[in-house]
Amino acid sequence: MILRPLRCVTLAFLTSPKSNLSLQEEHLDAIRRIIRDFVSRIPQASVRYDSPPVDGLQAAVVEELNALGIPIATIQHWLRWACQVAECFYPGHPLDLKVLIVICNLVIFYIDDILSVNPGPLLSFQLNSLTGRPQEDPILECLAHKLLPRMWDYFDPLAANAIVVGFLEFINGTIMEGMAKSMMPLHRRAPTFPEFVRLKSGAPAQYAFWLFPRDKHPSLKSYLQAIPDLLAFIK
């Protein structure tokens, strides 16, 4: 997550005009320097990651995916990683909430890696949701009608609203990231655009508000002021 700000630098590089090769080289050099400096400052003895046990959670997720009618093969590639994210970020949450978060994570990965290539179903997601039409993708259909409505079971109504809006922003941000690669250079004409896109495409609102289920944090006032800093860190 510490390396996520590099996405903004990389996005600015990708959107630079192809004719300006020297400027692209400058961006690449900047990225190399940042990564090299970051790695050089890490004490080697402290670089260790022990993934949490997720077998029980994964089994529960698979059972719920079958109940929802989501084909396991479609999201198998990200299943264990999504479980590890939930166990690392939300270790104290009850199992049923972790399962919901894992499946939402899988939807995020699916949108980011698969639907971003052909964003037609994403472009119509909000209109279909507002008009009650079926979604063009079965996983988006599950998101709209079976996953997002469950947020109100676990979170304050305002937090649930924010999570749902976060998904809408994430879908828009995913589309914008695809468009940005063919747009005008951002480093001069729109220097804040990469940050704007990342705030949407990074899905920070979901991960921030998921930290505060209503049973453990009954008062929204106890954490609402922390949300902006959490958004800035998570994205």
Describe the protein's architecture and organization.
- There is one protein chain.
- The protein has 235 residues and is an all-alpha fold.
- It has a single domain (6-234), classed as Farnesyl Diphosphate Synthase, CATH 1.10.600.
- The protein has 15 helices and no strands.
Reported for the largest beta sheet, the result is:
none
DSSP helical segment count: 15
What CATH architecture would you give?
Orthogonal Bundle
What is the H-and-E element order?
A: HHHHHHHHHHHHHHH
Using the CA coordinates, give the radius of gyration.
Answer: 19 Å
* Averaged pLDDT: 85
Runs in which pLDDT lies below 50 for 5 or more consecutive residues are: 1-21
Task: Give helix % range.
Answer: 55-70%
| Beta-strand percent range | under 5%
Q: Whole-Å distance between the termini?
A: 8 Å
CATH T-level fold name:
Farnesyl Diphosphate Synthase
User: How many domain units?
Assistant: 1
Q: What's the shape?
A: globular
What oligomeric state is this? single chain
Question: Which secondary-structure class do the elements indicate?
Answer: mainly alpha
* DSSP strand tally: 0
CATH class: Mainly Alpha
